[in-house]
Design goal:
CATH topology of the largest domain in chain B: Rossmann fold
Largest sheet of chain B: 5 strands, parallel
Strand order of the largest sheet of chain A: 1-2-4-3-5-6-7-8
Structural class of chain A: alpha/beta
CATH class of chain A: Alpha Beta
Helix content of chain B: 55-70%
Number of domains of chain A: 1
Strand order of the largest sheet of chain B: 2-3-1-4-5
Helix content of chain A: 40-55%
Shape of chain A: globular
Number of strands of chain A: 8
Distance between the termini of chain B: 85 Å
CATH superfamily of the largest domain in chain B: P-loop containing nucleotide triphosphate hydrolases
Number of domains of chain B: 4
CATH architecture of chain A: 3-Layer(aba) Sandwich
Oligomer: heterodimer
Distance between the termini of chain A: 17 Å
Number of helices of chain A: 13
CATH class of the largest domain in chain B: Alpha Beta
Shape of chain B: globular
Chain lengths: 337, 708
């Protein structure tokens, strides 16, 4: 494990209120930032080309590909959003825009039932659906012959990125570098942190999940009767209900174990991987990272501030993490160590 | 109100619920013979009449019931429904209101009132009536669905979605609720979701023509014309959607290049709706395109001569009559009336584009420039104008003038994330790639070639079928011994019919050769392309090796006869040319049925075709390339092992020695190489975007990962 010490970028040192973890975590998905991000990414989003990736099992995942306007790199960065986020989430767009500015091709993948993709598959999303993400990333990566391929994930997307990194070689493809920002490590702990912390986080996810599943019900009314599920007011009960009703997992703990990056899961990882997280993340407890194995292929940077997927530098909502990712990957792309 | 709960009436109701309306009516009439004043039975007979497409008979029954019992609210209600369906909305409102006088909490009646108000564009009133219906019955799904539509029309999209979603939640089987949800999603711009809802609705009611019409319209609006057409066809079969469906069908047919069928559809529609101005104008457009300018004046005769569309058609009539000056003067006059408006109006834009088109067709550079200039000066210029200018520049042989506006529209336009906008963007890249290539500016063309994909290849569905059935792999491994000539047709069961096919993918030169052979139609027995689907069905394509291997001679004989069903008359021994496109995995069955089959095979370097795909704007080039190479490998195997006679055509021969090529081709087909055939070949070669061999070398970075 490494503490922050990098010469590729300035350290993350926010001032004033921005040192507060909750300000960082809430601001990152706030309407104010959304307005700013949408304004500065208008051209980038306008140049995005939608692609539907179909896996061998017939799962269809939506993504958006961008070729940079000016070449600066021959690499491709695949970006994964967090739970109930999307390819258009603020943090994802900011990172993608920064990579695009630096001349790198980007592909923003929507998980099943995220963004506007509920119509593509009848079965519901859950976090143990690694295979389809693995296969989709594999397809995108394998088709990119002209340069290195990087994978960047945020929050649950970071969790997926780590699992994809671990399993990519056995799936028959390689990634050149993986970055996981504020990744979920032990889902039980994240759930507990939300339950015990400020209610705003849990309510945020409850609201977004309800909206998402209502849409799923509208599109597949014969399949989903969610009246009972909608009565649940917290994530634990909602998750338990869905696990029991719509998955083959024995119980909620088996389900959580199914996507935990716990114990020696990452042992055998042979893709250079960096985890970037914070001491004050209100959703992912820092001790989860302390329990990860120490390995040459795994760098873990834990910054004192930044909250959950925050890393916002100023009130213009400029993103430190976006620049950090660029410096990491562009340096990699140029063969720097 | 009369009693209806007696046994015979219940039996009739049961028959009605089973859609056995004729039997139900017989039963009800026998009851009525005994109880001539039974108003309830009269209403039921009215419903049976209506279900048997006799709305007038139904009305008569409802009127009688009301006469006997003026307070029969269902009689008034159903009367209103009939009037509403016939377009008499005021009459319908009066009848439904009467029903509500006698049953104020009648949710069905309140709902129909709301729907009538919506149709009359009285949205606030509609919302009030539908909310009243829901107060009468809070779970009444039709009212919720209708209210969802009304709220969407009023712009309250969030509430509209909630309302329609609630309707679906309460009644997942209800197709109308799904249809309403689709309507809301369309208003929200969530077209994928709307499509899913319409497909859900069609799952419930697969024969509902209105739903087919709605789905077709949605697909058409997304530029998916080929997918839209079967739904329009279904809608027309069900006699749904009226004139609008015919017009949309014609639009989609035009968009896929089938002007002929579009024209036929509108000619048929014209017989039914001869007075519809929009139809007459569209038909005039198609008759002009079909070279039937002399039949256009009758269409615009009687239309408002001041209407802009009419005057624009008039200008085109002058043009086809050879009076270009008169056409231009008419358009100039129209433009003078409109010019000076800021921003440029849509009408002025259309006139300018027509003037540009006519000037381009007549080689008039300056009038063409004058017409388009104000449109090109807009920031950004609109895509359609720039595309029209590019077409004119091609006709005027001034490609150099086309590039700058296309570059500017790409640079200055913020394209939305809709399929249509992305296609526009890719088409512009495609145009820039082609223009720069034709001007020899290969470095400038290169970046656009990587972003030019906007449409599926014409043979996309057949390729997908071949890929999904994994036939290339199966045929690559299948034993071919049984298909050798000496093991076939041992008893001479089939009379000899020499058959020829032209294999090869778009861009291989196949189209140019077939086009040339059309000049020799009178010398050949041709199996026409428009019967291709029937022939494919006859052959049982896609056909796996084990299925073909297990076929008896009798089965093969039956297939052969069915395949040749549309064969035009000719001399025995005269070669039959099948002009349909066949994937490589179709070759074994053709070879088995027609030993000695002549296969005309345009040879290619896959990279030349990949480049053609990019210049043509085809999507998924890497997937196409993979399948192309697999087909090429299979061709090598088939040509060695199957009883086929292969005539190989070298790509460059189309440019370097077209005369010699035509000579060889015609000799093998047993026809005379008349000069028109060679001329047609050269013309087709030049107009179908056919590229000489090795052009891909100008774009090596695109091919670094692939080999010949």
């Amino acid at each position: 494990m490494t503490m922050p010490s990098t010469d590729r970028t300035r350290p993350f040192e926010p001032h004033g209120l921005l040192r507060n973890a909750h300000v960082q975590s809430i601001l990152t998905s706030s309407p104010w930032r959304k307005w700013l991000v949408r304004r500065r990414t208008a051209d980038y989003r306008g140049r995005s080309v939608e692609e539907i990736i179909t896996t061998p099992e017939g799962v269809r995942l939506q993504g958006f590909r961008n070729q940079p306007l000016q070449s600066g790199s021959d690499g491709l960065a695949i970006l994964l959003h967090g739970w109930e986020g999307s390819a258009d989430s603020n943090y994802l767009l900011d990172a993608a825009q920064a990579l695009d500015d630096a001349g790198m091709a980007t592909f923003r993948l929507n998980f099943r039932d995220h963004g506007e993709s509920h119509h593509l598959n009848e079965d519901l999303f859950h976090s143990c659906r690694l295979q389809e993400v693995l296969q989709a990333v594999g397809q995108i990566a394998s088709a990119h012959q002209q340069g290195p391929v990087f994978l960047v994930g945020f929050s649950l997307g970071g969790n997926f990125a780590l699992r994809v990194a671990r399993n990519a070689p056995s799936e028959g493809f390689q990634l050149d570098r993986v970055i996981a920002v504020s990744p979920v490590i032990r889902p039980q702990n994240a759930m507990a942190a939300m339950r015990e912390g400020l209610s705003v986080y849990e309510q945020y996810f409850v609201r977004k999940w309800r909206r998402s599943l209502k849409r799923k019900r509208t599109l597949y009314p014969d399949r989903y009767q969610l009246d009972e599920w909608l009565k649940h007011k917290n994530l634990s009960e909602q998750t338990r209900h869905l696990v029991e009703a719509y998955t083959d997992f024995e119980d909620i703990n088996s389900y959580f174990d199914g996507y935990a990056i716990a114990d020696d899961y990452l042992k055998g990882l042979d893709i250079q991987t960096t985890i970037i997280t914070t001491l004050d993340d209100p959703i992912i407890p820092v001790h989860d990272f302390h329990q990860l194995p120490q390995m040459e292929q795994l760098d873990i940077e834990i910054w004192p501030h930044g909250g959950h997927c925050g890393f916002i530098k100023n009130w213009r909502c400029d993103s430190w993490i976006a620049q950090r990712i660029v410096s990491e990957l562009i340096g990699e792309n140029r063969g720097e160590s | 109100m009369s009693e209806v709960n007696s046994g015979p009436v219940q039996q009739a109701a049961q028959l009605m619920s089973e859609s056995r309306f004729d039997q139900a009516e017989d039963q009800l009439r026998s009851i009525l013979a005994e109880q001539p004043d039974n108003d309830a039975v009269m209403v039921l007979i009215g419903l049976c009449r209506n279900a048997q497409n006799d709305p007038q008979g139904a009305l008569a029954q409802f009127d009688r019931a009301i006469e006997i019992n003026p307070e029969h609210h269902l009689g008034h209600y159903y009367r209103g429904r009939i009037l509403s369906n016939s377009g008499d909305l005021d009459g319908a409102r009066a009848s439904i209101s009467k029903a509500l006088e006698f049953n104020p909490n009648f949710a069905e009646g309140l709902t129909i009132l709301g729907v009538i108000s919506m149709q009359q564009d009285e949205l606030d009133q509609a919302a009030t009536e539908l909310k009243t219906a829901l107060r009468a019955d809070e779970n009444f799904v039709p009212a919720m669905s209708a209210l969802g539509r009304v709220l969407a029309l009023r712009g309250d999209l969030e509430e509209a979605e909630k309302m329609a979603a609630r309707a679906i939640q309460l009644s997942p089987e209800n197709a109308a609720a799904q249809d309403a949800m689709a309507f809301v999603f369309i208003r929200q711009g969530r077209l994928d979701f709307a499509e899913q809802c319409l497909r859900n609705a069609l799952d419930k009611q697969p024969d509902n023509g209105e739903l087919h019409s709605s789905l077709g319209t949605l697909l058409m609006s997304r530029g998916r014309h080929r997918s839209a057409l079967p739904h329009f066809q279904q809608a027309m079969t069900q006699n749904a959607g009226g004139l609008k469906t015919r017009l949309n069908t014609a639009s989609s047919l035009s968009a896929v290049g089938d002007q002929q069928q579009a024209w036929q559809i509108l000619e048929q529609a014209y017989q039914r709706w001869p007075d519809e101005p929009d139809l007459r104008l569209r038909l005039a457009d198609l008759r002009l395109l079909a070279g039937q300018g002399e039949r256009v004046p009758e269409l615009i005769d009687g239309l408002d001569p001041e209407r802009l569309d009419v005057q624009m058609i008039q200008a085109r009539i002058h043009h086809v009559q050879g009076d270009i000056d008169r056409a231009m003067n008419l358009l100039d006059g129209l433009m003078d009336e409109l010019s000076g408006q800021n921003p440029i109006s849509e009408d002025e834009r259309r006139i300018r584009l027509l003037k540009l088109d006519l000037a381009g067709q007549n080689g008039l550079l300056e009038p063409a420039q004058a017409a388009i200039e104000p449109l090109l000066q807009l920031s950004p210029p609109d895509v359609e104008s720039v595309q029209a200018w590019t077409r004119a520049c091609r006709r005027l042989d001034r490609l150099d003038l086309a590039i700058e506006p296309v570059e500017r529209v790409l640079k200055e336009t913020t394209f939305e994330q809709t399929t249509s906008a992305r296609n526009d963007q890719a088409r512009l890249h495609q145009i820039l790639a082609e223009l720069n290539h034709r001007l020899g500016r290969y470095d400038d063309a290169l970046p656009h070639l990587g972003r030019s994909a906007w449409r599926p290849i014409q043979i996309d569905s057949l390729l997908q079928q071949q890929a999904e059935s994994q036939l290339l792999e199966q045929w690559q491994q299948a034993p071919l011994d049984e298909l050798q000539a000496d093991s076939m047709n041992p008893d001479g069961a089939h009379p000899e019919v020499p058959l020829a096919i032209v294999l090869g993918w778009p861009g291989s030169g196949r189209e140019a050769m077939l086009s040339a052979l059309m000049e020799a139609t009178d010398q050949l027995r041709m199996l026409e392309p428009n019967q291709a689907r029937q022939r494919r069905e006859a052959l049982g394509l896609p056909l796996a090796p084990d299925v073909l291997g297990a076929m008896s001679e009798e089965q093969l004989s039956a297939i052969r006869n069915q395949y040749l069903g549309g064969l035009p008359p000719g001399n025995p021994g005269q070669i039959v040319l099948d002009t349909a496109w066949y994937e490589m995995s179709a070759l074994p069955v053709l070879a088995r049925l027609f030993p000695g089959l002549l296969v005309i095979w345009p040879e290619f370097d896959p990279r030349d075709l990949e480049l053609h795909f990019r210049f043509s704007g085809f999507q998924s080039v890497s997937v196409l390339s993979e399948q192309l190479r697999a087909e090429q490998a299979l061709a090598d195997r088939f040509f060695k092992a199957l009883p086929v006679d292969v005539l190989r055509i070298q790509r460059q021969a189309l440019f370097d020695a077209p005369g010699e090529l035509i000579g060889r081709l015609c000799k093998r087909l047993g026809i005379e190489a008349v000069p028109a055939v060679q001329a047609r070949l050269e013309r087709a070669r030049d107009t179908k975007g056919f590229l000489p061999a090795d052009q891909w070398k100008h774009y090596e970075p695109l091919f670094e990962s692939t080999k010949a």
